[in-house]
Amino acid sequence: MNILYFEDIEEGDEIAGLDLFLSKDLVRRYARTANMYFPRFTDDEGARAEGLPGMIAPGVMSMGLLARMISDWNRAATIIRLGTTFRNPVLPDRMIHLRGAITQKNEADHTAECDLWMENDEGERWVVGTATISLPTKL
Amino acid sequence: MALDFDRSILGQVFDETTFPPVTKEEILEFAAALGETNPLYTDEAAAARGPYGGLVAPPTFVTKLRAKKFMPEHLPRFGKTGFDAGRDLEIYAPVRPGDVLTMASSIHDIYEKTGRTGSMYFIVIRNEVRNQRGEKVAVIDHRIMQR
Predict the structure, then answer these.
(1) Which of helix, strand or coil describes residue B86?
(2) B118 lies in which domain range?
């Protein structure tokens, strides 16, 4: 289990990334539990009828996965703000790569600012965001 | 289309929805759907020994709340199609099993951006979530792009 204190991190540090195969079943499961069981998130035909290239993952699922990356990286980090921009539709049935880095440490309140993003195999950033996390201190 | 609307609607609550109590099962399933392994969200016994003294929901759990009315009735449409452009989430208090959440929705902002493909209009819906004790749990700004 990873526990990182405020003193353990530095500006520029990478957040351990998460690579996962985003299957259509994973997306459907999320859509069901998140009250988003709409055609665009559940089947290709329904999505095409809405003018999309095929079924897509809900933006908030990407957001949830970015939050999970932080939790997997550091069990002691508490997310107090998470902002995301959905730049491109996230298409399932392929690998996605979640990444992040610490951009700023705030000594006054033991928080840190992070850049976060989700990219595909080609390195295109489909979702970008920032977060503020609160960390315990050794003091 | 010019950005023409009655600015007095900004900040006015157009929907307030109270949801059934949050269940433990709902939290566990939400966490499982994201592949979370953090015991705070997945293991009741371990979470009881943790900083919250019990199971809590993953940070984005509040994004699953669906208001009765998603938009005010008389808001004009600014384009033919709409996209979910992003969310900004601020978290103030954890969500626990048994919590009764109420979400108040208002239009926070409407603005225009001009890109290579023409004008885009952004509608920001602010959803403020409180629990049964009136404590602010989260604020979710939902940006919808129309063009």
Answers:
(1) strand
(2) 7-22+63-146
Alpha carbon distance B31, A64 (integer Å): 9
CATH number at residue B126: 3.10.129.10
Per-residue model confidence as pLDDT tens digits over B56-111: 999 999 999 999 998 888 788 888 788 899 999 999 999 999 999 999 999 999 99
**Domain annotation covers residue B109:** yes
Do the beta carbons of residue A33 and residue B33 sit within 8 Å? yes
* Interface membership of B88 toward A (CB under 8 Å): yes
The residue among B94, B93, B86 whose CA lies nearest residue B124 is B86
Chain A residues 108-127 within an 8 A CB cutoff of chain B: none
Q: How many Å apart are CA B87 and CA B59, to the nearest integer?
A: 13
Q: Provide the Cα torsion B29, B35, B39, B40; round to 10°.
A: -70
Distance from CA of B84 to the nearest CA of A (A): 7
